[in-house]
Amino acid sequence: MNDEPVILAFCCHYCAYAAADLAGSMRLQYPGNVRVLRLPCTGKLEVNFVLAAFERGVDGVIVAGCLEGGCHYLEGNLRARRRVERARQLLVEIGLEPERLEMFNLSSAEGTRFAEIATTMVERVKRLGRSPLRPDTKRTEHGIQEIGRQAEAMLAGEKR
Amino acid sequence: MIVADRKKIPEIRDMIKNHRRVLLVGCGTCVTVCLAGGEREAGIIGSALRMALRLQNRGDVVVDECTIERQCEDAFIDLLAPRVSDYDAICSLGCGAGVQALAERFPKMPLYPGLNTQFMGILESQGVWTEKCSGCGNCRLGEFAGICPITRCAKRLFNGPCGGSRDGKCEVHPDLGCGWQLIYDRAVNLGILGRFERIVPPHDWSTGLDGAPRKVVREDQCIAGLCSRT
Ligand code: SF4
Ligand code: SF4
Questions:
Q1: To probe the interface with B, which of A75, A84, A93 has the most B CB atoms within 10 Å?
Q2: Which pLDDT tens digit goes with each residue over A5-27?
Q3: Which stretches of B93-214 are assigned E, i.e. beta strand?
Q4: CATH of region A7-155, choose from 3.30.450, 3.40.50, 1.20.58, 3.90.940
Q5: Which CATH number does the domain housing residue B55 bear?
Q6: Cβ count near B21 (within 10 Å)
Q7: What are the backbone angles phi and psi of residue B111, rounded to the nearest 5°?
């Protein structure tokens, strides 16, 4: 169990989160080790959220936003793409493989695509191996919950 | 404002890796605005450093972050002072002035710069900053239609342009507007082109950095006596 990769997916409320939900209702098989975290928009994603996830030992991070041109906040997903690029540069400097982080665009109707994305990332991370920063899966899971609470607070419009 | 950008993580990691507890100090003024060393960047750099250290088996080095409003003023550094004794080094995300203000204030504390301080400049467009002033101590903008020949002409010419000005671009770099073309264009708009018919005498550089570190004194403000610092 401990060797199963832990993947965190930051999902936009309007598309990828709904797609993940749809994948569930369609009873599509996708790896259970992808933890889905809802954001109001991927434009809300900050580089420090991604780094916080890696620091807590996740093996891979998915950022999933609306199709380009389809963002409810016009350009949140375009901003997110730039931030993901920046976070990948930082991963290189840190000494982690940048492939552990990737942004995808999909619509809320693409349950199948969500399942594919999840499978792709799990397979990729399995190839790369467990993150050298994850000595303890329990702490990683705990860390993910902590990041989740922050994201939920953000969604509820509360001050962090 | 002062514009800076961050050093690469491996460079900072190697500067601090032989300490046990390092305080990463952000600054809430210029470097926050140019997105190099404010609270958010301190969080990002701190997290990146902790990971980079762990990957080099130096996970025992503690890196904590905090940000003060202004690193170049003692009144703000005061707020930091109570925490500093818990650490054996500081990495500053302030500009070079901020780093040195902390070094003066904490004489026994090793101090490392997390940023490369670049220049005095402006936000040209979102995410792009450009240099506008070299702090020569003897501002001549009034004579040059509001465009600084010292900073914006690559050769610092006072009687430009040189022969390398082509289609408004400087020969030094194809993306660089010729400072003197800009001066002439504005002078035309302002109807003051005629002033460039005379040769501009050499600049008085004695007010610049070449002499020694400079000092500005406002005696009416020196209520605690003249200048404690040299
Ligand atoms: S003339 Fe001197 S003070 Fe004025 S903008 Fe140029 S460098 Fe700065
Ligand atoms: S081309 Fe223009 S900016 Fe460049 S060095 Fe010559 S005068 Fe200065």
A1: A93
A2: 999 999 999 999 999 999 999 99
A3: 111-113, 115-125, 128-133
A4: 3.40.50
A5: 3.40.50.2300
A6: 14
A7: -125, 130
For residue range B181-203, what is the model confidence (pLDDT) as tens digits?
A: 999 999 999 999 999 999 999 99
- Please give the model's pTM, rounded to 2 decimal places: 0.92
Strands (E), B79-223: 89-92, 111-113, 115-125, 128-133
State the Cα–Cα distance between residues A102 and B122, nearest whole angstrom.
33
Where in chain A are the domains? 7-155
- Express each pLDDT in A49-105 by its tens digit: 999 999 999 999 999 999 999 999 999 999 999 999 999 999 999 999 999 999 999
Of B43, B48, B50, the CB nearest to A90: B48
The Cα of A51 is separated from the nearest Cα of chain B by a number of Å equal to 6
Residue with tokens 């003692």: B74
Domain extent for B173: 134-230
Give me the interface pTM, i.e. the ipTM.
0.91
CA distance B178 to B161: 8
B114: β partners = none
Q: Are residues B93 and B141 in the same domain?
A: no
